[in-house]
Amino acid sequence: MARLTVLDLRRNNFTGRLPPLCAQSTSLSTIILNSNQFEGPVPVSLLNCTGLEVLDLGTNAINDTFPAWLGTLQELQVLILKSNLFHGPISSCQTEFCFPKVRIFDLSLNEFSGSLPAKVFGNFKAMIKLDGEDTGEIKYMEPSMTSSYSSYEVSVSLVIKGQDIELEKITTIMTTIDLSSNHFEGVIPKTLKDLGYSISPATISKGKLVPKTMSWNDSTDCCTWDGVTCDMLTGHVIGVDLSCSLLHGTIHPNSSLVQNTFETLLQNFTKLEVLSLYSVNVSSPIPMNLSSSLRRNADVFINLQELVELDLSNNSFIGPLPSLILSLTRLQRLDLPSNSLSGPLSSNTSMLQKLTFVDLSYNSLNGTIPSWVFRLPLLSWLSLDHNQLSGLVDELKANTTLEYLDLRHNQFSGPVLRSLGNLGPLPSSICNMSSLTFLALSHNYFSDSVPHCLGSMVELSVLDLRGNNFTGSLPPLCEHSTSLSTIVLNGNGFEGPVPVSLLNCHGLEVLDIGNNAINHTFPAWLGTLEELQVLILKSNKFHGPYKY
Q: In the predicted model, what is the mean pLDDT of residues 378-398?
């Protein structure tokens, strides 16, 4: 079939060998054969698919070694081989540019073994975000076809943070490497670690990979250890980054440092400015040890008074947020999301006057947000979403620095300025945060009308109030502001017409007012908003003819 560009046969009961695709055609750009019962090797006829962008052979019974020759396909962006019977080492193709455009690379749940070759991952240039490359525009993969049948949207299934996720559309900024559930061993190559902040997520587990601390040896200068950064002038250790390092409980046995506990080691780094233990518990009890020591032993942080950045995210920390962290007076960035922290935040006056970034999302924190949080003079980013918080202890005061406020998926039930059990309004004092560009209060229990002053917040770009119990008329958004690009008010009880003040939202890209009780004719005038990409009016009381 010479003109076939997209072949999607996923989730059937096909058996036998994979067909010799591209044996007589070079037009295929997307091949999805996921979730069948195909066997045998990967057909080399795919080498003729010179324009192939997506190859998904996951969840079959394919028995083959790693098809390194696929790396010669210069347009390939998505390669999914997960849940098959692939085996042996990962070899590199022999061309100079191997997998140059790959952004999604999933080899999980196979029988691959051996070491991870540095050359293979060093070729993944498309996973490296270059300065100035991110314009903030979200684009999606779609076939490069010139015919009228070009609406097919590429979708694949991935495992992200342990959850099976079906990506209905693949953004061109999505990057993922999953090597989990294989039998790899040896040292994680630097080329893979260099992608650590470009890929999301990089998953390697159930193997025998050596942690960063393999290079920690008393016989060598600690400034040469993997994950350790030193001041060039003083020689003091100023950074320890063990993120995604697959620690196995103690410092590696090749070092006499094994005689020290991990917290004792930290105490010796008195000039430490950056400590990152992001996602170190893939196969490690260390986070739990550290967590218990944080609760019982204040000495862990007493000597870290120079700390500027602390990242303990995506671990298994339990219990309350250690009060000792509040004594780190130089701290500017605090990352503790995706743990199991519980209890209320400390109501004591904060010493964290230099904090600019706080992320405590995806925990089980409860109670009220203490007023000192919103009084931090330099705070610009606050993420407390996906907790069990229920209110504030005081009215929101004027704040000119906070730009990002995310309180989604909590139990705020208003008045938000006190922790009351009944539904209540969002107070107008929210508008005292005059520098907000992002405000997300979705999936809480707010009710009554929305303060009209939201329409006067001149910097506000994203407003998400979905999944509450707001009623009354839609607020006059953009009445005195033209910055809003995203408005999501879905799943409330709003009534009345669509406010014409939205005509002032010249940069509006997303407007979702679905699942309300809006009673209006079709607002054809929204068509004059040149940037509008998403318009959702479903499940309301719109009536009359569709006019444009």
A: 82
